[in-house]
Amino acid sequence: MEQVLSASTREKIQAHLAKYPIARSAIMGAFWLAQEQLGYLPRQAIREVAELIGLSEEQALGVATFYTMYYLKPVGQYRIHLCATLPCALRGAGQLYDLLVKRLGINAGETTADGRFSLFKAECLGSCATAPAAMINDDYWENLDQERLNKIVDALAAGQEPDLPKTLNRVGPGFTDGSGQKEAA
Ligand code: FES
């Protein structure tokens, strides 16, 4: 089968491998670099990474299928990982999920027909104190509510950067926007 990893990605993986005394320890970063190039990890990329590291395809596949940060099929331009674990669920993540399903017309694990959005239900994103939270591509969005989420989706759908704070600091009955100004409770 034709190789899918570019010469540049192979070089980056080799440089990454050089940082580790045991090559297999570098597999997660190597997958990340492959995914950066391809947008996801097709089976051939997993084979090639395994070969570069000196693992069997099965060993490499075990890692690629374990972590949700690796996509095994093509995904959209914006990957929305909405936390569905208890603290976020208690603060309305279920309603936010329903909103996304309705707006995007897809369920978790699916991608919109235009290739713009993919939706995932995530396990705890480690942002429980600012629940509910979502990770969209490499950005965290916290203290989400329907209004904030709608604004984010509006902006991304228009190809723009959402113009709102990524989080809100909780300081009592109301929140601040990070500027020290308390919003109405
Ligand atoms: S439960 Fe959602 S970030 Fe921890």
Structure write-up:
The chain is α+β, with helices and mostly antiparallel strands and 185 residues long. It is 39% helix and 12% strand. It is built from 7 helices and 6 strands; from the N terminus they run H-H-H-H-E-H-H-E-E-E-H-E-E. Strands 2-1-3-4 form a 4-stranded mixed sheet, covered by helices on one side. Helix 2 (27-38) runs antiparallel to helix 3 (43-53) and helix 3 (43-53) crosses helix 4 (57-66). FE2/S2 (inorganic) cluster binds next to helix 5.
In short:
This protein has 2 domains: 60 residues, Arc Repressor Mutant, subunit A (Orthogonal Bundle), CATH 1.10.10.1590; 86 residues, Glutaredoxin (3-Layer(aba) Sandwich), CATH 3.40.30. It contains 7 helices and 6 strands.
What characteristics describe this protein?
Arc Repressor Mutant, subunit A, 12% strand, 7 helices, 185 residues, 2 domains, two-stranded antiparallel ribbon, binds FE2/S2 (inorganic) cluster, 39% helix, alpha+beta, Glutaredoxin
Share of residues in strands:
5-15%
What is the radius of gyration? 19 Å
**Roughly how much helix do the residues carry, as a percent range?**
25-40%
Let me know the largest β-sheet.
Answer: 4 strands, mixed
What is the overall number of helices? 7
Report the span from N to C terminus: 60 Å
- As laid out across the biggest beta sheet, the strand order is 2-1-3-4
Q: Provide the domain count.
A: 2
- pLDDT averaged over residues: 93
- At the fourth CATH level, what is the homologous superfamily of the largest domain? Glutaredoxin
From the coordinates shown, what is the CATH architecture of the largest domain? 3-Layer(aba) Sandwich
Q: Any idea of the CATH topology of the largest domain?
A: Glutaredoxin
Q: CATH class of the largest domain, anyone?
A: Alpha Beta
